[in-house]
Specification:
Elements: H1 4-7, H2 9-15, H3 29-32, E1 43-48, E2 57-63, E3 66-72, H4 85-88, H5 91-95, E4 103-105, E5 114-116, H6 118-135, E6 137-141, E7 144-156, H7 162-175, E8 177-182
Parallel strand pairs: 7-8
Antiparallel strand pairs: 1-2, 2-3, 4-5, 6-7
Length: 186
Amino acid sequence: MKTWLDAWPVFRQLTGPDPLGRGAAARSRATENVVARTATADRVVQSVCPYCSVGCAQRVYVKDEQVVQIEGDPDSPVNRGRLCPKGSASKSLVTSPTRVTKVRYRRPYGTEWEDLDLDTAMEMIADRVLDARRRYWQDECDGKRVNRTMGIASLGGAALDNEENYLMKKLYSAMGAIQIENQARI
């Protein structure tokens, strides 16, 4: 007859065939019922961590069109399946209940935020870019032809890759901006 002592993991470890407590002695009924989130996923999507310019590969596990787990990709030569603490916590970027999923806008001198539809927000941004370009346009500076605007600048994030930086440079240069930088230092 089994007693409460038999259910105690330390007792099982000391009296059983698993003295180091790495096998059966460390397992309980609750442990036996645990299933990894990755085992129940419908599909795995390859992705890249958004935090820095290293570009660690990730495996995103999806079940019922919801992200259930994000792990490092062991097939990646960049991170070999490992993620830093930020990368390991990147699932919360998608699943956090506090994640903002609407365009939020606070009018100048306003005290409250309001929701905007995406088309309205994009029109507002386009209008402001064109206005800044027009107001700060310079044909000449010190007698030299410059054809530039000092009203638009770009500081790219460290998570942008070379291709994205190339496109940003082309876009801002086409608008006449000359202050175009990227903060990536790796």
